[in-house]
Amino acid sequence: MVALHPVWDTAREYGILASNHLHAELDYYLTAYAAEIVNTLTNLLFIWLGYKGVRSCQTQGHDDIFLIAFVGYVLVGTGSFLFHATLKYPMQLVDELSMIYTTCLMCYATFSFAKSATYRKVLAGANVGLAAFITLYYHYLQDPAFHQNAYAILTTVVVFRSMYVMEMHLRPRWRKVTSNSGVVKTSVGGTIEVSKKNDERDLKILKTMWLMIAFGLTTFLGGFSIWNLDNEYCSTIRQWRKELGLPWGLILEGHGWWHIMTGTGAYFYVTWGIWLRHCLNGRQDEYKLIWPRLFSYPEIVRASSGNGVIQHGTGNGMANGTANGTANGTVNDMANGHVQKKTA
């Protein structure tokens, strides 16, 4: 095993470190080109997942707000990469404030659905104002705790709002348009029966969405807990890492785990938001979830894009239902046409 030899005092003496937010990882112990090598490299996951999301939005026709959110996701990873590599204050701002801006974008996406143009303009202005206030006040305070609390509150509001919208619009018994007798009134006063198959489909979608939420939140909160433990017991964990040496000491880099786990949780959230938006638009049968394994990164794709990837949960049900409906319709039409022609 290789011993860890920090050059913290030397780096501080020559003015290399200018950030007001220090971490438990020793600085410049592996290379002179990155202050916190593990905290730097773990941001590559953010950048890759952001790029993956951008490509998905471009090729699968998702709403532009999610494309912008994934661009912000890339910016978060890039800013954090540069911050942990240099420990410069400007890079710290890019890292932390881009988290706020991306969450504000998701806040707009969540609260603007099915609202009037005037409401959306006011909401957009409110989000811009909130982001500006957090930016200026944080720069004035220069207290990382303020940023963490602001980010936590924003994220909590957005996630719980999304959960509420999902339940109220997808769960059959909560749909406001559905009467107790199981019929929906049309604008012309007629009635149509609510499709039992569609209700079953939506219940399957809800089940998978809650699984995504549970996995994403557990991962996100797990990373946050590890990071807090890393901060609280910094000196003890540093001593453990010195005793373990390289490479096993790297496992105890708590802030690096924060990057990996919160990056994963945030990606799950945005992907869930994309699927929820398509469902709210009544396009459940046009899009499907690709999530072959629990510990894999999901993607929402067009149902017609036959990429051969195994689907998870509701995807197969929707695909099979659509295929069976098409097949049955074709057979019935052909049979009816044949009978009519023979009778004539």
Q: Could you describe the 3D structure shown?
A:
The structure is a single chain. The termini are far apart. It is globular and about 65 Å long. Strand 3 (287-290) and strand 4 form a beta hairpin. Residues 7-16, 178-191 and 306-344 have low confidence and may be disordered. The strands form 2 sheets. Strands 1-2 form a two-stranded antiparallel ribbon. The chain has a two-stranded antiparallel sheet with strand order 3-4. By secondary structure, the protein is mainly alpha-helical. The protein is built from 11 helices and 4 strands, in the order αααααααββαααββα.
Task: Give the tags.
mainly alpha, two-stranded antiparallel sheet, 11 helices, 4% strand, disordered C terminus
Helix count, DSSP H or I runs of 4 or more residues = 11
Dominant shape: globular
Distance between the termini: 89 Å
Largest sheet: 2 strands, antiparallel
How much of the sequence is in beta strands? under 5%
Average of the residue pLDDT scores:
80
Going by helix content, strand content and strand pairing, the class is mainly alpha
Estimated helix fraction: 55-70%
Task: Write down the Rg.
Answer: 25 Å
Low-confidence runs of at least 5 consecutive residues:
7-16, 178-191, 306-344
In spatial order, strands of the major sheet run: 1-2
Q: Helix and strand string, N-terminal first? A: HHHHHHHEEHHHEEH
Using DSSP, what is the number of strands?
A: 4
